[in-house]
Amino acid sequence: MKSANESLTTFGDGNADDDRLVPLRVVLRWIKQLRTVKKAYNFAGRHLKLSGSGKWALAAPDDSITLYTVDNLIGQAILAVPVTTLARAEQSLLTKCRIAPQDYADVMDRAGVYAILPPHRTAVRFANKDAFRERLHADFEARQARAVGKGEIRPASASEPTGANVEGSAGTSKASPVAIETRPGPQKRASSALSPPSPPSPPLHPDPAVEAATPATLRSTALPPTKKARPPLPGPAYSSPAVMRTAASTPSVPGPPRPTAITRPPSPAQVPLPPATAAVFTEAEQIAAAKHVAVKAFELEALRLAHEAAVREGAGAFLALDVEAWEFDHDLLLEFGWSILEYVKDEKTGKVTARRETQHVVVKENARRRNRKFAPDARDHFDFGRTITLPQGTIYHLLSGLFSALSASKPLFLIFHDPRMDLSALRRLGFDSAADFQSDLRQLGKPVSNRDGEHGIWVVDTQALFSGWLKRKSQIGLERACKEIDLPTKRLHNAGNDARYTLDLFEHMMDRSNSPSAASTLIKTIDDRAAAAAIAKQKRLETGADILREKFEQKALPRP
Known about the structure:
The chain is of the alpha+beta class and 560 residues long. The protein has 3 domains: 5-228, no CATH class; 286-510, Nucleotidyltransferase, domain 5 (2-Layer Sandwich); 524-560. It is built from 15 helices and 13 strands. It has helices at residues 24-34, 41-47, 83-97, 101-111, 129-149, 208-213, 241-249, 278-313, 392-406, 420-429, 433-436, 462-470, 478-484, 495-510, 521-556; strands spanning 5-7, 21-23, 65-71, 77-82, 114-116, 122-126, 180-184, 316-326, 329-345, 352-363, 387-390, 412-416, 457-461. The strands form 3 sheets. A 6-stranded mixed β-sheet has the order 11-10-9-8-12-13. The protein is globular, with a radius of gyration of 29 Å. Residues 155-253 and 258-278 have low confidence and may be disordered.
């Protein structure tokens, strides 16, 4: 964009003075991510879709849709949605579904939602949803035609809205010709002198009466209706021969440079063949895996420095926590276990001593429920002390006071092995994980605003740290990780035992002298699985390229 992008965690309160926009492809990605959340699945399926029978929360009461066009970095016009419109949809979503703030923040993060502050914009009003779907389909075909016209054969971009991103196909729509009203938007920011002029909107199907009243710079050539778009094949995306013939027959108009005409190849020998893209995808996956490992290695090094400071100066406490839930309903909590390692400095002698404590607590309300069918039951086999039974409310106050006491004068590191279910259990217990805990370990050492302690409570995932320690992207369970470091375990799935073994695994990785064995069978297994997955994906890509090549050759054959 011509102006800086701004990452969003929410769309705000819908203030009318807010003139920010969100690209439509980002909004569609947001809707897709919402459907993965259990509580928001029905809402997103009923209200956030472009089907004739469903209500779209972004549309006006008269079923019309008003968006804006802005220019991207290469001067092409893209559709964008006002933040104020999205804020109303978001408030309705959060009110009706009651999604946890952390779950919604994860959705926004996975969707990569950001806002833009365009220097200029143009409002585009679509009469109904069919007109809007027609515009999206036309945008997709226009991009394909431009790519073929320039001779560019590129992989499909998952971030661009295609026919598969929107429910319903424009090709099957029976709506009348689209009536579009364009009007200049508010000029709050002057456009840069170096910014290129805004190109015309992508091809549409205009009404003749509206075409005569529309400025020449905003007119576009109509594309003939096409068949329903098929789902994309594996491999790079190519325009169909129908789109190539459409681009070839499109007359040129004055204005910005348009793609050169494309003629039908006279023989199969001149058909453009798909390039070998398996190596490109493999390299991209390797880069992504290397980035993941580098981030986890950085977090591991940051925690090692914090651990060394705690051992040297008594400036740190570590608490490993594990929760066991009922196998038939994960909302019912059965056991809590924690293991504490606190370094305390004697003010007189200056000597730092380590204090350890491991505790196992059974939830009184669910004491009669046990896991047997899908998970082993080891409740009665706590190996590091005595088990006590307390009401769930008492457990909350006990943990809350423990967190506050340990983080009052030093940072507290809350350690889990795959914290997703454990943090969800703490939220059900009464904690606000978004406000109470810090998860970005890159901010270690900076002042933290936290109501439970001025030094903050930091969430640590030993499963992710173990990935950085192995220097391999992986998800290894607690038992297999302990076996790799020769740490004997027994009677797992007891919350107290699991917490103690998690803390022992963390301490092992904090020791710089410990490193993975060169003859490790675990590392060999991970490498073999990665190689097998790469070969399987390469075969899928080659199969998709062969199918596309065969279709190009068949279309190029002379017709009888």
